[in-house]
């Protein structure tokens, strides 16, 4: 397995590299509100690059990761992507961490013809397909389908949606509205909140007086944790669903006891220890979780997994196609059956996201930890 190769570091360390390193850029929200995404992504990317180099590099050449902090700011992301392209001369870029930052830099990488593998989830990043842009985070459309399928099983037909007014939330809102009728779901309340809002009781009070049978909140921390706490404070008994944008322990830390019972779609990594043994990702997932824990003293999560996938996809593309931007792009597009952390990737000329809804499982917060929702038909 790929993970097993990476966690085996050569006893003597990396041999001397005669050729110039292959420069890979990284754009991550390492600080700021989205740091719960960007910090594990940066950490994972550096960990994997170091391990690849310790094992001999790629085609005898060292990988060099040049990573910058976007702080979750789209303007800063644009400045930094151009620094990577023009000053650092990278051959490929992984990140950014957020949908908004990614959408901001797409024009830059397309004009420069530099392949970018985003770690963000918005479907519009790769729909429609952009020649030089790929992604590793599961599409929000797939997350919506996972939730709606569960609601069908539970005979829940009327929902209230509460989405954050940023790139990720807007994309999720579009997918929720576009897919509702297909699943027989009626959206009876459609409301939003600002990323910096610290109280969502007005929106939730309106939801409480509606016919909604469930609440779906779409956003990234800290907003969804505020929603969870407000739901508990208001005594609302409706089931609450979150997006994959909060599938890390950080959400549980922020929401505290209010997180109990909340369900959301996630990559398998946060429940890797309870996956059935026949799950074809389990071995890689467990290796990644333990490897990250060894390096950073916390478990590897869903978000770090996006960067693991991006680096490993680049490694495979360089091995198969070469180290020029064009060769990397062409080889990425031909990637098939790559068993990553986020799922099994199959890219093509018409699909630069590469995953199906099977990349997701549903998880529930129980006793301040993640539990696999088996009654949803996920075994």
From TrEMBL:
InterPro entries referenced in this protein's UniProt entry, alphabetically: BCAA_transport (IPR051010), Leu-bd (IPR028081), Leu_Ile_Val-bd (IPR000709), Peripla_BP_I (IPR028082)
Highest taxon in the source lineage: Bacteria
Pfam families named in the record: Peripla_BP_6
Signal peptide: 1-18
Annotated ranges, domain Leucine-binding protein: 21-366
Keyword line: Amino-acid transport, Signal, Transport
Protein family per UniProt: Belongs to the leucine-binding protein family.
Matching PANTHER family: BLR7848 PROTEIN, LEUCINE-SPECIFIC-BINDING PROTEIN
Name of the protein: ABC transporter substrate-binding protein
